[in-house]
Amino acid sequence: MSKSERPNPLFRNLNAKVASIPMILTASVVFVGGTLWTVLYSFTNSKLLPRLNFVGLDQYYRLWATPRWLVSIENLLIYGAISLVFSLVIGFLLAALLDQKIRFEDTFRTIFLYPFALSFIVTGLVWQWLLNPDFGIQHVVRDLGWTSFSFDPLYNSSIVIYGISIAALWQGTGLIMCLMLAGLRGIDEDIWKAARVDGIPMWKTYLFIVIPMMRPVFITTLVIIASGIVKVYDLVVAQTSGGPGIASEVPAKYVYDYMFFAQNLGQGFAASTMMLLSVVIVIVPWAYLEFGGKKRG
Amino acid sequence: MADPAVPLPAGAGAAEREALGPRGPKPRHVFSRRNIFLYGTLFVVAVYYLLPLYVMVVTSLKGMPEIRLGNIFSPPLEITFEPWVKAWATACTGLNCDGLSRGFWNSVRITVPSVLLSIAIASVNGYALANWRFKGADTFFVILIVGAFIPYQVMIYPIVIILREIGLYGSLSGLVIVHSIFGMPILTLLFRNYFASMPEELFRAARVDGAGFWGIFLRIMAPMSLPIFVVAIILQVTGIWNDFLFGVVYTRPDTYPMTVQLNNIVNSVQGVKEYNVNMAATILTGLVPLIVYFISGKLFVRGIAAGAVKG
């Protein structure tokens, strides 16, 4: 395009390169460099300061022998399964209800989505209050006369992770509903007409025609939910701080506590590398399904 | 009787009605079983979603004696704004007893520059990627997008070291840089796709007229893409205001953002728990994103649909 003599290819399109410096630095130094650094140091016995004192897989053996980490993983799996199943089902059902050409659709959508604007800290604290056994829902139901009623998920170590999931679902289903609603609006009206002419009941149309057609939307949603699950941290900090005991610990909190409180950096790095691994396990199959057939890029 | 859709007057005889036959659209039954089920379900769900907000507001307006005796769902008998004043001005976190106002202003001082810097970087970057591609640019872009899926925990500590090296660890500017880094993938994607969808002729015409990289961006591209800037602002304001992890890692107690301070106030183990103050503080912290949400409406939905990739 330009008529310049092209003295040095490095200086061609210089402005664009200057403008991309932050991206280049972020991608190479922080994302690639930082990740490699953490993985590398997870093989060392760094305590208070990072040191290159390699101990092989010791940190990982220790990690998988720590009860707190095992509880964290178990919690993450339960929390993940609940978030995945319930937010998909509830999100889709709400979207389907809103898609019936109802009145006040905008009002309902605004109400279902507003929790998503709130932070996990705010969400966690509100639900901590609602689930408070001395004042919250349990207290109210007991006052109504059902004195043996018991609903104290945040103080019962066997069900505490379900109490956290309730808050997470309240906060996050609105987003899933919005994504699903966008997907439903993308379905051709003629499909519905054809199904009606053929006399197919509505639920069957949804189950066997519409949902299979929304496959890309479901996959995107799945990836969004999954990557959110691994990151769960603030919600637990606000609602229970990991308690009672260690009953509601999650991996992200394990990493933070070992890095900044227990001064056991090696453990923190090993745990965060495991988190990275779990994301890779989720993302790679998805990327393969999505981009595997096509050219990469 | 010109319009068949108009129902017959009540006085019309049965014979007359029969003679005319059914006309006009099938009457809609407002209270059909379908509608009762549909609106009933939506209404119940809406109540469920609104209940926590209602309880927050109600609790924050009660005095402590009333909370101890009463029911969290009952409206306050005596409305008091004292908890709000206390939450804002005198609630204690550790040594400081100047309330959430400190955290609020910290959050403002974090959010405003972070939003401006991250959007400035990402918009120029997206523009370079869309219109001024250079060799290798796409490689870095792919790394950037893939990097958005890496758990933050993996990169937290290396960033601590980088910030310490450049002397910004613990300062607000350090946190601003962190927010700009982690906002970059989604914002760059947003801007790149938007600029790429603009007509190519526009760009060529400006080139022919002799405009350069910055000229085209400032005079043509940026003014034509105000909606995407608004979406980016909504996305960033709510995201950065609601952040907790980066705030707690990269700042010190006197520069904690509002979310961190709120958590410290409510979950502090010392002293008597003042639930009304806690709820007032919680509402205050949630207020900024809620206002953004209710004002922005449909644009917010667009923003999160794009930002959802961030997870």
From TrEMBL, chain A:
Q: Which residues form the ABC transmembrane type-1 domain?
A: 73-288
Transmembrane among keywords: yes
Q: Name one GO cellular component term.
A: plasma membrane
Tell me where in or outside the cell this protein is found. Cell membrane
**Keyword annotations from UniProtKB, A to Z:** Cell membrane, Membrane, Transmembrane, Transmembrane helix, Transport
**Record GO biological process:** transmembrane transport
The superkingdom listed in its UniProt entry is Bacteria
Which residues span the membrane? Answer: 21-43, 76-98, 110-130, 159-184, 205-230, 269-289
Q: Name one Pfam family in it.
A: BPD_transp_1
Q: Which residues form a coiled coil?
A: none
How is the protein disposed in the membrane?
Multi-pass membrane protein
Q: Which family does it belong to?
A: Belongs to the binding-protein-dependent transport system permease family.
The protein's name is: Sugar ABC transporter permease
Q: From which organism does this entry originate?
A: Mesorhizobium neociceri
The record lists the lineage as: Bacteria, Pseudomonadati, Pseudomonadota, Alphaproteobacteria, Hyphomicrobiales
Automatic annotation (TrEMBL), chain B:
Q: Which CDD domains match?
A: TM_PBP2
KW Nucleus (keyword) present: no
How this chain sits in the membrane, per its record, is:
Multi-pass membrane protein
Please list the GO biological process terms of this entry.
transmembrane transport
Which N-terminal residues, if any, form the signal peptide?
Answer: none
One of its Pfam families is BPD_transp_1
Location in the cell reads: Cell membrane
Checking InterPro entries in the record gives: MetI-like (IPR000515), MetI-like_sf (IPR035906)
User: For the ABC transmembrane type-1 domain, which residue ranges apply?
Assistant: 104-296
Gene3D superfamilies, per database record: MetI-like
Please identify the protein, giving its name as recorded.
Carbohydrate ABC transporter permease
